[in-house]
């Protein structure tokens, strides 16, 4: 039988589940789940630099939301959760000292004390050798002289059933009176034990703690809990684990708000395993007044830290206060780390992740969003204010440095990062070089600084520079699965590099750097692996940039940097397809055809979802006219070849011009968002509004230029409109063909209206012209303009 | 104004349409808050609510432990009315279903089933305790032992009666074509485990619109959720909670939905905060009411932050935009005109989402009554 179960440590450690369940849960069901986390926050300053796993819930970039992160966390994300905490370790050490048996393994003690369900032990007391025979701790406690310890351990397990719920699916018993009676019986028994004169100094506070905790679960009998605490637990040394765990419960029933805040701060400080819960219970509004109860500068620093720990805004006043009180205090690292991360986020998240700091009119274009002209300058104002704030923070840290003591190396790294954010690499290097401490996290941070220094100081076109960068990035890549948020750190470093390369005009390298990071969620709406390879260039690049990318991938020999960039690609085919598609969007059919011809004929059959959206005849079949599809499949090469043939035939044979233009019109209609072969020009389609789908227009007005063809020919089907108009103008075209073309012009007009407006369709000039000029045709009789007829 | 007039006219036209027979429309409410406040019960009572949909708990996916877990347990000492029929509701995230195979679904159904039963017993015991203390505080009651015993018995009877009023169990999930089979299997298992309850589930508008693609769940009834129609994160949306033109796109279904449907309408509001056109967070209405002075009104429902400040754990920058969303009564009346032709179940439970919002406050009862009347 499996006795030990891997329940979560804190759960077994008396931090009961009901406590945790009271914390806010953001699930929404009928409502939108509003928690977006901080998926896209930029950071290069590691928040875990202080090496305190218990601080993880308080990082500005919240790593606790493993599941919500789009940056492909390692599958075993739980390995980055702390497996144990200092207070728990101290408790186990106390036990080992008391048992005085060198044969007892700490893991066995942990398993018995913390990870064994009460029933598993209490139901098998008569068969201990069978079920616990291999547990060195159980065996040791059965030996003479240790009866009292064993007896206490049984009390622990009995009480646990009334103060912890190890399985989240378990429900509190419905009959609370029965539970209360059983709990009262235990309370009575514990009181009797506590009054026993035979209790050792080791066991007495432990029984007191058990009783105190049981009273808390019995709806908190404050006075009795306080008495127990004062009598048995408060006299223990400040560092005693049980004293501080007891404080966590006593604080919750302390009526005086300042004393309550002070006690929570002490429990927060001493109990790593209960840090998050103490922080949740701490009431910020009492922090300042509670300072008068704090006895040491460290206690004051703890109170100030708690008050600022969830502040998403500026915390510099608190940082200054802590520096004035205790510049070497460890919590300074937590607050300073958060402040550096905030500045990185405010100043650079939008820039480095590819969204510049200017507001696009589409954000404000609607009537309801109209505002003052100066609104458009706000990002500049934010940036200026944030830089000013950055300098204030940096100056404060510089002034604190001489007195920083154990914080010195950390502060130097923070200062170096702040200089880099302010584009002062020389000063940054000075402080980075001054760091003397040698541990892995410092090494990691120095390498991240080094990447930034190379980007800011060296010629990015030079092979030597590029290879230096490659070395740093490869090192980071190798650490990716072994460090907290490793994939995210790597992806953000690549994004940072991409931004610098882009600004130097090295667009192919920039695009491949971004793609290499696989920064999913970057635009929020794509996760298709095929499209992720090319999305950077599709959205931000030009045909010239794609050509350079193809050249880079197809180079016979690569430098180390180029190998880093091109490693994910077996060939350049996706980029050939993209280049041809970009040219086709602009109506450059011959050029597009030449590019598509580089690709094998079965490329579109075997790749991505092309086969589904290119398998109908775009020239002869229009879905709005005939329900049955043709199943004549085309590739982009054959389709563009046919476009060229039709164009040529129309020019050479005026008698056929009308029919040729009609087929060209059909083809371009089907290539647009309204047709069935839309993958000729786009890589995805959505019913939720095309204008918001393919290039999220919240920022970056510069999308407009490379996407002009996309807007005109994919979104608005202008090329189709042009060819249908040509049919109408062709003298040799028969009336039925012209009726067909006139119908399609009205159809395009209607679909444009429906795609861009919520209002009902109003027939325009095309529809009216169709009715007036062609109502006598056979085509009109089978395809009447119903909307016009109703008018 | 022009649009509103049109909508009102449209609503009038539909309300006058002779084709639809009178419906037995019964008001109901969703109680969605995890810890509802006591004073809210006046509203369901005033509207003579026939049903209260109680959110028991949610089921979400724990990405670290790779298994489903129950979240957001319902904590309440609220008295759930003397006559209204309680309908327990469990919400399950679509993400949870994505991770489960059929064995996982069966196991989850077992766990959910046990949790539902235990939680209902717990709620019933709370119900009993509340009645008991109410009766005890009555000055006309004597406190002799026998009298006290009688009170306990009375309270217990009422608690039993509360349990016996439960006839339906509802599962809420935004399932997709990809998770359809798993969700339907879960529903089948839950129905097998709870044969005493009629099983219902929520139907989103997209599921209502495309039953061929998303399937029809194997349940006795559906609850059509006629809200959250727009793209919340889109800065160009005018009202993601409800707007007539968006909703009407989903309601132009010619074939009747294959299940008898009840209907949920929005009665809540919230703010949607944007920074540089990027969605930041939802702002609960109580937070908005507290901090609205920090914003300057721009237009119809748009506000602009006057300065940098902290709002509900988010750092708001000067100039950030907030869209305050709430359903318009005129548009709701207009959509009822459309729905009146689509939904013909008798009786029809018209549920308002949700108690706790100021739109479900005592002052708003006339608005809610008007919506119920429009349906009849």
Low-confidence stretches of chain A: 1-38, 64-76, 356-371, 520-526, 687-705
Within the CATH hierarchy, at the fold level, what is the topology of the largest domain in chain B?
TIM Barrel
The biggest sheet of chain B, with number of strands, parallel, antiparallel or mixed sense and barrel status, is: 8 strands, parallel, barrel
Structural class of chain B: alpha/beta
Radius of gyration of chain B: 22 Å
The share of residues in extended strands of chain A comes to under 5%
Largest interface: A-B, 56 and 72 residues
Topology, number of strands of chain A: 0
**What level of helicity do the residues of chain B show?**
25-40%
Averaged pLDDT of chain B, please?
A: 83
Task: Report, as a whole number of angstroms, the end-to-end distance of chain A.
Answer: 81 Å
Q: Regarding quaternary structure, how should these chains be classified?
A: heterodimer
First-last Cα distance of chain B: 27 Å
The CATH architecture name of the largest domain in chain B reads Alpha-Beta Barrel
Could you explain the architecture of this structure?
The complex is a heterodimer of chains A (791) and B (376). Chain A has 791 residues and is an all-alpha fold. Chain A is 59% helix and 0% strand. Chain A has 42 helices and no strands. In chain A, helix 12 packs antiparallel against helix 13, helix 21 (408-421) packs parallel to helix 23 (440-457) and helix 39 packs antiparallel against helix 40 (765-774). Chain A is elongated. Mean pLDDT of chain A is 84; it is low at 1-38, 64-76, 356-371, 520-526 and 687-705. By secondary structure, chain B is α/β, with parallel strands linked by helices. Chain B is 38% helix and 24% strand. Chain B has helices spanning 2-15, 42-46, 94-98, 102-136, 145-164, 180-193, 205-209, 211-214, 244-250, 285-291, 329-342, 365-375; strands spanning 25-31, 51-62, 67-71, 85-92, 168-172, 198-203, 221-225, 261-266, 270-275, 278-284, 295-297, 302-305, 309-311, 314-316, 321-325, 348-353. In chain B, the strands form three sheets. An eight-stranded parallel beta barrel of chain B has the order 1-2-4-5-6-7-8-16. A five-stranded antiparallel β-sheet of chain B has the order 10-9-15-12-11. In chain B, strands 13-14 form a two-stranded antiparallel ribbon. In chain B, strand 9 (270-275) and strand 10 (278-284) form a beta hairpin. In chain B, helix 4 packs antiparallel against helix 5. The longest helix of chain B is centred in the N-terminal third of the chain and has 35 residues, at 102-136. Mean pLDDT of chain B is 83; it is low at 7-18. Chains A and B meet through helix 18 and helix 20 of A and strand 2, strand 3, helix 4 and strand 10 of B.
